[in-house]
UniProtKB/TrEMBL annotation:
Consists of an N-terminal FAD-binding domain with a Rossman fold and a C-terminal substrate-binding domain. Its main location: cytoplasm. Monomer. It comes from Amycolatopsis alba DSM 44262. Its EC number is 1.14.13.-. GO terms for cellular component: cytoplasm. It comes from the Bacteria. This is Flavin-dependent monooxygenase. The lineage of its organism: Bacteria, Bacillati, Actinomycetota, Actinomycetes, Pseudonocardiales. GO terms for biological process: response to antibiotic. NADPH binds at R38. One of its GO terms (molecular function) is FAD binding.
Amino acid sequence: MTIAIIGAGLGGLALARVLHVNGIESVVYERESSRDARGQGGMLDIHSGQQALREAGLIDGFHEIARGEGQDMKLLEPDGTLLLQEDTPEDAPLLRPEVDRADLRDLLLDSLPEDTVRWGRAYESAENGVVSFADGSSAAYDLLVGADGANSRVRALLTDARPAHLGQNYVEIGIPDIDRTHPDLAAMVGRGTYWVLGDGLALAAQRNGDGRVRIGVSFHNTPEDWFETSGIPFDDPAAARARLIELLPGWDARILALIEACDDTVVPRSVSTLPIGLTWPSAPDVTLLGDAAHLMPPTGEGANMALLDGARLGLDLAARPDDFPAAAVKDYEREMFERTGAAARMSERVQKLLTAPDAARKMLAFFQPD
């Protein structure tokens, strides 16, 4: 059985690792030129995904790179009122630790044979058991797995569904080495996540393992082309920071100081999702996992679902080593559709709370139900 995995993200690598642990080799094709070709983003809250890492034999390595203190959280209103502060005891179990996405990806990459990932292979098409790449090369497969993210091109082999804009646009900024450069702001943010929710507006500041605080300023209920009319001059970082502050009228000066302290990395991002509960007729030689299969609101479930997808598909395939993969794919998809549909519905519920009037109080009730 020749298994071709498109995409060296967390889900694709988890699949390759679980297959490897069970004596089945696969090949991962990744469009990036190397593991260090670009940044891998910020921190991830890994909870249910830990089961996938156990199946992959990597849970001890995960515990070495996970940040238990990253479970700390502060929830505030825009006027600076602190509604909730959760501080994690030093001996607390690692139920929802934060981990740097790059560190987790490296853990998975380092657990695979050196030639498992083929870098610089951008997927172009697949037909009759042959996948073709942009560099003119091709490869045969018995099973093609699309683990190629939100803008998956493999997805088109199974469904016409495409991501749709969620009504959220955010600006990503950050403060490097915050403990040294801005110790007062470092103390204010704390060790984990600092979350400020207003009416249709939000600021989330999160500690990264490298000392950087990553900040997202979100504008909810806005159209996909909102950045074009927002007046944010992204080619002028200082002016962009000033405009962001203008767009947060009445917010406490201590919160706005986080924006003032940021460096010149100012990145606009739009948020899209796939339809909740998306399914497709099972095909014997193609399937999807991770964001390619179930892109959902960014409320902490996506990476966990991707890890579980990879592990469970790997286990289903390993349970039928002498069979053509059709039966394993059906079993995997049946479980995946149910599990990720429930996760997507929960993510949608949280997203609605974030966009509601008096969002901070509603989230407080979510975290502390009666």
